[in-house]
Amino acid sequence: MSDKKIIIAIDGYSSSGKSTMARRLAAEIGYRYIDSGAMYRAVTLYALENGIIASDGSINRPALQKALPKLHIDFMPMTDGSQHTMLNGRDVETEIRQLRVSDNVSPVAAIKEVRTALTDLQRRLGRDKGIVMDGRDIGTTVFPDAELKVFVNASAEMRARRRFLEMNDKGDDVNYEEVLANVVRRDHIDETREESPLRRAADAVDLDNSSMSIDEQNRWLEDQFHKALTRAK
To answer: What is the pLDDT of residues 197-212, one digit of tens each?
Structure first.
């Protein structure tokens, strides 16, 4: 492997498989994987647990803004090669994947102060390069100069099915229709928010993985990495 380190930005819609492929590539090439979506989920979990998000979904923005400097978000490597999201020293990996967090994360992520705080943190984590980061605005806002940008998409129905099967495997009591509704709602919020909306970077490489196996998309991404590394030399 070359000593040259680059930044790999993988953006796309919710439940499009970004995290799975980003995590696998990072492990394969010896880079650090950063799940930016987990950061927004951690903030959302904190807001839910501390009454900042009301039962009707409304957000107390001044309270959330005041809380942001007190939130410490990091990732802990696990013995099986995975990593867990840590919020103020607490392992919240299971909690942030619950549907109640999924239902509220897009409105939280649309708040300017939240995006500013987490963008600053993400840039610090990528200061020395050698990272794979996935999210909604990594290639457009966080790292516009990333050497490799990928934009991932699949139909809403396919993404909802994947998410539904994943949650069922974990024992979550959900049905397909509510997962699909969540996916469609998040797409709309992500695309229309004022602060760093989800969009494809002009120099991103497109990947529609609707009909691809995990192995096929992994091979495709690794090939893109080697091409980008060659261009960066």
So the answer is: 899 999 999 999 988 9
